[in-house]
Design goal:
The protein has 57 residues and is an all-alpha fold. The chain has one domain. It is 91% helix and 0% strand. The protein contains three helices and no strands.
Length: 57
């Protein structure tokens, strides 16, 4: 019984640890990157600029 509990505890903590690692990495990414880039505003501005240039041509 104790051996089974240790086995499940080990795998559960590995799963939680991997989730924490992903959470930490994405948190550092959100802090270091420009918030406008994360929101995708640069993509919408590029699309708007391309559509304006096509209508003017």
């Amino acid at each position: 019984m104790l051996s089974t509990a240790r086995k499940y505890h080990k795998w559960l903590m590995a799963f939680v640890g991997i989730q924490f690692l992903f959470w930490s990495i994405t948190g550092v990414y959100m802090v270091t990157m420009d918030i406008h880039y994360i929101h995708g505003e640069t993509l919408s501005k590029e699309t708007a600029n391309k559509s304006r240039s096509l209508t003017l041509s």
